[in-house]
Design goal:
Elements (H helix, E strand, L loop, with lengths): L10 E4 L1 H5 L8 H12 L3 E4 L20 E4 L4 E4 L4 E5 L4 H11 L4 E7 L2 E5 L13 H10 L1 E3 L2 H6 L5 E8 L10 H9 L4 E4 L6 E5 L4 H11 L7 E5 L5 H6 L2 E4 L5 H4 L4 E2 L7 H9 L5
Parallel strand pairs: 1-2, 1-12, 7-8, 12-13, 13-14
Antiparallel strand pairs: 3-4, 4-5, 6-7, 6-9, 9-11, 10-11
Helix pairs in contact: 2-10
């Protein structure tokens, strides 16, 4: 299943936060150049993120010819330029009602992602200033959120195609995160969802069985390629399945230990051009 060096890499799946992004939310020129070199070699470069479509850093990627993007932990795959959804798995709104009734009592900052857009219950807005997140993430969340006055009523309408939910927890004076352990235990008992840590000690959930690997498998099949021809690079728990399933799975130097333990290779960290190094080392071994 893992990479045969006789197989050329044809798809390059790149996580965004903690992988393409440095610690300040910037994509380096070296990463841009490396992605463009991959494109020139005929490789599809595919941002593969927990973010929604609108949250992908398109402004920083404007000089890279991106044809496809995998979003919300694999629950949606788009033709990038047209924002045409090719594949989507979404949560059952009715089954989500008791879950969100519980979550709304726990003083958590909640984002739900519907049709590539992030929505936030207005009642949780005040919590954002207590989140233990980098400034660029807070800024992105404030700039991109759209308010929902009553999330439960929104779900009861039944037509919300929710691709993913993200939960961020308030930091307490003792540096612990308010209600995080309790909420994780609760969610892991819910059979209809897949729960992961997407980075920054958050929790994210999608429809059960959905992850970045499932989105990547769809895209590879859509393009007529095998998973053995895919190279994936990531750093967080929500990258584990795609690193396992890709022909070549590469963990960033800053990745969590459980991510490194399943990777085929480990590159440099996100502050030292890990993506550019991985592309340079592994994408052209047959060219």
């Amino acid at each position: 299943m893992k990479h045969n060096r006789n197989n050329t890499i044809k798809v390059l799946a790149l996580d965004v936060d903690g992988t393409l992004f440095d610690d300040n939310g910037k994509i380096s020129q070296a990463s841009i150049d490396a992605m463009n070199q991959a494109k020139e070699a005929g490789i599809e470069v595919v941002p593969t993120s927990g973010r929604d479509y609108d949250g992908i850093p398109w402004d920083q990627l404007k000089n890279v010819d991106i044809n496809y993007v995998i979003t919300t932990n694999g629950s949606a795959v788009y033709e990038a330029k047209a924002k045409k959804c090719l594949y989507e798995e979404y949560l059952d709104s009715g089954k989500m009602i008791p879950i969100f009734e519980y979550l709304l009592k726990k003083e958590i900052y909640i984002n739900v992602f519907v049709d590539g857009v992030s929505y936030t219950p207005v009642q949780v807005y005040p919590y954002i200033d207590n989140l233990d997140l980098p400034d660029y993430v807070i800024r992105h969340m404030k700039e991109n959120r759209k308010g929902v006055n009553d999330l439960i009523e929104y779900l009861k309408n039944g037509d919300a195609k929710m691709q993913k939910a993200t939960l961020n927890f308030q930091k307490q004076e003792n540096d612990e995160l308010l209600n995080r352990e309790e909420v994780q235990e609760y969610l892991e008992k819910c059979p209809d969802i897949k729960v992961v840590n997407g980075g920054f000690n958050n929790l994210e959930f999608t429809k059960a069985g959905t992850n970045k690997a499932s989105g990547l498998k769809f895209l590879a099949e859509y393009l007529g390629m095998a998973m053995d021809e895919v190279m994936a690079v990531g750093d967080s728990e929500n990258d584990i399945e795609m690193l396992r399933e890709a022909g070549l799975g590469i963990a960033m130097g800053n990745a969590a230990d459980d991510v490194k333990s399943i990777a085929d290779e480990i590159t440099l960290d996100n502050e030292h051009e890990g993506v550019a190094a991985a592309i340079g080392k592994f994408c052209y071994c047959n060219n």
